[in-house]
Amino acid sequence: MELLRSNLSRVQIPEPTHRIYKHECCLSFDTPRSDGGLFVDMNSFLAFGKDYVAWNYEKTGNPVYLHIKETAKSVPEDRPLKKPTLLAIGVDGGFDNNEPAYEESYSIVILPDFVSLPFPSVELPEKVRIAVDTVLSAVGAERKEQVAAWTAEKKQVSAYALTLPQIKSGIVIPPSGWKCAKCDKKENLWLNLTDGMILCGRKNWDGTGGNNHAVEHYKETSYPLAVKLGTITADLEAADVYSYPEDDSVLDPLLAKHLAHFGIDFSSMQKTEMTTAERELDQNTNFDWNRIQESGKELVPVFGPGYTGLVNLGNSCYLAATMQIVFSTHSFISRYFSHQSLKMAFEMAPADPTLDLNMQLTKLGHGLLSGKYSIPVTEDAATGDTRQEGIPPRMFKSVIAAGHGEFSSMRQQDALDFFLHLLDKVERGSNMRPDLDPSRSFKFGVEEKILCSSGKVAYNKRDDCILSLNIPLNEATNKDELEAFNNQKAGKGLEENDMSTDEIVRPRVPLEACLATFASPEEIHDYYSTALKGKTTAIKTTSLTSFPDYLVLHMRKFVMEAGWVPKKLDVYIDVPDVIDISHMRSKGLQPGEELLPDGAPEEEAVESAQPVANEEIVAQLLSMGFNQLHCQKAAINTSNAGLEEAMNWLLSHMDDQDIDAPISHQTPGVDQSSVDILISFGFPEEVARKALKASGGDIEKATDWIFNNPNATVSDMDVSSSNSAETPAQSGLPDGGGKYKLFGFVSHMGTSTHCGHYVAHILKEGRWVIFNDSKVGVSTDPPKDMGYLYFFQRLDDN
After folding, report:
1. Active-site option among 67, 217, 366, 757
2. Is 25 among the residues known to form the active site?
3. What is the pTM of this model?
4. CA spacing 20 to 30 A to 248: which of 89, 445, 586, 764?
5. What would the pLDDT profile of 255-276 be if each residue is shown by its tens digit?
6. 20 near 141, Cβ under 8 Å?
7. Residue numbers of the domain that contains 637
8. Are 122 and 24 members of one domain?
9. Residue 317 a catalytic site member
């Protein structure tokens, strides 16, 4: 006790602004449930496992710690699993994770000799008792930043409900037999609560749903609220009411009155349709695992170093799948595991190691690769089945997602976007020691040769980390089977969702055809030639100036279908175990080739090149229900790059103050200081200028634009540049032969990259292993033809 009193000056009482860690070690994945428990520094409020707390004492001199130990309570083995009624994890009504209950014990520990004093105790100094009580009652920083229990947002009362106008039209709505007033749709129908019109809902991404008649009616009339027919029952709060101006599901406290206006007796109505939230819950509880998760197969669990699963934090499978593959590369293993200990990373870290990317990548690397946390836990005592609990990457996610609106959310994300974001963060964090940058092992040079109709050429160069490949369906190798299947389907009048998975025939496209399409010549229309001093049609050919240590191929499975509906291609890619891309090597400026002269377009050409929206893109956006002026701005601000780019711009600029301002007929200038900042990030100047132009000069939005358009080039910017003789060695890029071996792939299930589920398959020790969040097992039938991202390693014997 005297020892404690002599160290009272090193004990702090937490303030509301303090970040208090008490659930997980800052340097490892130890928790209060680990054998040694968890030690909370009573000065910094950082937490450390038993093997690491002495390091903190050596670094800071802080001697007083709260020791927290959790011990599992016995739970009946026959406890039934409850069916979820709420889209949530870890809360009443949510998904039951069947975790045992734990009881906590506490003590005060004084380092360096680990002298222990019981807590609670009236003999402890008052300052210590108050400090510990405050720590125990506070919400841990880990939980604040990465909420373990997540729920769909609760509906709010609409601002339009209390003053909603209702037209006396004499319309009486029958209790059933509804149909859209503008088409033949009999499902997904919405009753406008102002005029009583029954109209169909929005068209979904995959072409299902309605025909947008309800939302179009709102745009014509401004009548704000509609209720989904088939969701009205005696429980009025459960009815699906949508507010168009608020763009959200809402509560209408006067719904009974508003329904009575149209003769609807809600107490007698039956539920026949899912609400929006119920449909989301249904999708979350009924994943279409299919071949990607190898459902129906007895997967043998694997344990040990390199076989540690990652706990799903709530829609974090995109992160888990990506990091499992990244930490299967020699560059990341060497940088954050074999050549950097946890203690080294901690000694280099700032005062709060939870905010340090290097520390948290090292923590994650050691967690995945050491085998410390990949230990079998008995799942069923009767059968002896085992599983592993996995490690939760909360602190890593918090650091890597800091400042990013999407990755810091609990929403599903695109694994490709996250991979590129990760490499960018790692590269920036290694700017003082680029020789230690593991992201460079993925980087390669891309060269675009532009042949003008004058016969002269330009060479544009950039660096990239992925090859994004179109899938040429016309190169399918099973065209006869496809034709027979389509004829059979048409003859029976069936849709694919009416058929079993085994009955459906999908196109099979060789990966070689995708690579050939990437390297094949492509026409560029309206290319400004400095030789002709006017616009012409040029031919662009793309090749690689270097071959990376690890080659990442992104399959563009999301395309525009007939009717301009975005759809995921249901296609198989035949991927060999070994590929050779030697033929894609750039040859550079050839003898006899003459470079296009440098120079900017003349004044007349500039005048004629004033921004004009592509009518086709505008028409596509209009068909989705967007405002025409907004559609034109989206096309212009993305340089008419395509529908997807325009839609992304539109969705991220809907709240701009000037979104409804007339289109300026002045070509926007680009601030040179903004260009310099993007160049310092490693982006080519021409790409930086294009991104700033597409983003209204906003640096953050320009950076996002570049990452959302990984294949953005300067070729469509009317820029003619001379050939650079810089070699891969001079640019610091890795290089070698063109033969590669497949070692991993990320597969995606779902209709969009922003929903569904991601799984990784990795070739380890001569066998394929599936990493499905915390589940890790031997893969008996790896679905190599269903990948979204493919990872290849360069062979050394080229």
Report:
1. 757
2. no
3. 0.70
4. 89
5. 999 999 999 988 877 667 766 6
6. yes
7. 615-653
8. yes
9. yes
